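User: Hi! Is it possible to get a structure for several chains at once, not just one? Here's what I have:
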Amino acid sequence: MTVDLIDLTQAIQALINDRDFAGVLETTTTVNSDELVSVLERLPTDDRAIVYRLLPKDRAIEVFERLDPGLQSDLIHGLQDAEVAAIFADLDPDDRVWLLDELPAALAPQLLRGLSPKERQLTSEVLGYPKGSVGRRMSPEYVSTRAEYTVAQTMERVHRRLDDAETVYTLPVLDDSRHVVGIVGLRELLKAAGDQPVSQIMSRASVSTAYQSAESAARKCADLGLLALPIVDKETRLVGVLTIDDAFRILEQGETEDSARQGGVEPLRRPYFATPLRTLVSTRVVWLLVLAIGATLTVQVLSVFEATLEQATVLALFVPLLIGTGGNTGNQAATTVTRALALDDVRPRDIGRVLLRELGVGVCLGSLLGTLGGTITALVYQPKIGLVVGLTLLAVCSMAATIGGIMPMIASRLRVDPAVFSNPFITTFVDATGLVVYFLIAKLVLQI
Amino acid sequence: MTVDLIDLTQAIQALINDRDFAGVLETTTTVNSDELVSVLERLPTDDRAIVYRLLPKDRAIEVFERLDPGLQSDLIHGLQDAEVAAIFADLDPDDRVWLLDELPAALAPQLLRGLSPKERQLTSEVLGYPKGSVGRRMSPEYVSTRAEYTVAQTMERVHRRLDDAETVYTLPVLDDSRHVVGIVGLRELLKAAGDQPVSQIMSRASVSTAYQSAESAARKCADLGLLALPIVDKETRLVGVLTIDDAFRILEQGETEDSARQGGVEPLRRPYFATPLRTLVSTRVVWLLVLAIGATLTVQVLSVFEATLEQATVLALFVPLLIGTGGNTGNQAATTVTRALALDDVRPRDIGRVLLRELGVGVCLGSLLGTLGGTITALVYQPKIGLVVGLTLLAVCSMAATIGGIMPMIASRLRVDPAVFSNPFITTFVDATGLVVYFLIAKLVLQI
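Assistant: Yes, the chains can be modeled jointly so their relative placement is included. Here is the combined structure:
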């Protein structure tokens, strides 16, 4: 069957106008690569870029090699075009995942090179790396070398890139198909003889994929003390590098956000005194309102037990102490687990182990505080009130530590920032359940 | 008057045995430098090091130059001696400050070179840099150059130090008296012609003094994106460098501690699952107890108002909501200000400005929440109760934001870690005062 290429080209343009990208993708599968190249040649620059970007990765590599060099560079410009970028940015995230296969590793850095940070941001939508991924923060301006090159050849490459490379102090070492096979520092190059092959002096490379979160890649870079971490595609082909100063900026931003959320405020985007009062208020008021609305739960719980309270007003005296201790215990657990998650000491799937550990810690803390608090209360007030307070402390601490420990785990499983879910929410939740426990124990012990 | 050098030597040895270091210092002022050199020659290695270390800086420079080279190196070994280090480590901090003048900048890095991290830790006591200062974390293994050297001469220096220097990518540029006059990167050296003087390609250097806190130096290094920050003495003479990977480690440790303290736990020193349950409990129990003891204040406040509570049990219903909102508002302010302090956006002396801003924020938040909460309560319960709740929310929010904002400021003025003082303490404090305000307003409005 022969295909009329002119008809096909028009059909594809119509599908693009209708934004039916799935249809475009399907149509391209009906023709062979040579025919596809002819179609691409006939399309205007923007449409050509869109069709090309919708090809599966293997096909994209094949087609790119068959394009003539002028058209190759034209295609790259098309992919950098603001309007094309806007089209892909508008894609529904789910569509984006199945429609946009990974771009060939040879193309990805070329697409990003020479762009301003703003343009780069835009173009990274075309690359398909998700928001918050290191693919959006990496630099394409690296200097790489090959395992079989000599030190002298490599130094020549370094000298050529002294002006524009992001860093020349760490060089990823590649094989013929751009796979990262090692890493070599400028220091090692200076130490070695000029005719030595790079393979003899390179060391094993740690890498991150472009799809990983920027924070985890940044932490890897910083923890290993690397000046630059190679960023690779799913087949470990080099697409960029993350330098340590960028890694630091990513981590710093993450810390500021975590710290803010832990205290129930939105992070400020500028220095404290440069932030208008209105903004300070608005970073706090929403959280405060949400928490206050949550706290109306405690009012409702207490109304339920109002009769009990009237019979024994003394019970009201211990309400702030008991819910405060519960809140503190929950906060402690949440803080520890949130930090452990941020440092990758604990992974989301460890939820069962964390639950058991925190329950253990909570029971220990509750036994200690319960015995102490119960005894003192028994001496100052009455033995029965002491029993109520002691038992409540035991129950509240065990419950609070467990909830505080697993809340951040649940958050990170739901891919929500664990710090958002943690301290203020836990406090509110623990407050209400703690009150229920308190009055149930009181009714049981005091028989009212 | 001639001095009998043998008598003098014996007198000094006796003073050292008595640990009368002020006496040693005083005795050395009675003789001229030539005589002092003779005395030093007569002393055993350890005592020689002790006497030398007690000399004022200018005198120490003068004397060191007059010692013969063998004795100079012997003196350095003496200052590195574990026993000598132990003696200076035992000094009372106040004594240390006035007794130990800064060591000459030429000597400081020499003292630290070639030592293991543990030995270096010990020897830094001899240097006199306070705990937590960058002087204790810097590396003496830097490569420096001179402004008048050529690029070729500098590259020769780099090549000689490829094996042992901490970094060869950033070189401080010094003048004749070791003052830092600039900084030059290996990249700039590679770009320049071999006969160009360093002064033509160097750029202005940012430095920190060895006495500054490690965290502030680390932040400077990271914020400026420097691979190495020169560390200088009080006269801007180079004594070491802080590399970016060490800077990162210092900041990371600081963050972990801040985050832990903010949640009321002691930082874990190892990964979560590697920490025994006993340790998890002990990192939390002390804080929890302290906070619980603080919370007994709320029990006392409530006992004072027990009669009021008996007359209007309905007041008890709003206790958790009111103190919870106060605690949240206080935490928000504390979190924002603590972070701003950590980022150097706010300095300890800005306490007045912070107080005013936070009072303003608190009044805004209190007005919003008070109006809303008061209206709803008035509709659900009684108008008078609504008035009480509304006014209390206004008062508690204003007070909590102010206290939350200035507590970290006070802590950093007292040179206590602001994060220690912040969230949990504020909550407890705000709880108790909030209750007093609540019942006073209630008594006034309800006339009971």
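Chain A has three domains: 5-128, 145-259, 276-446. The beta strands of chain A are 145-146, 170-174, 180-185, 208-209, 228-232, 238-243.

User: Great, thank you!
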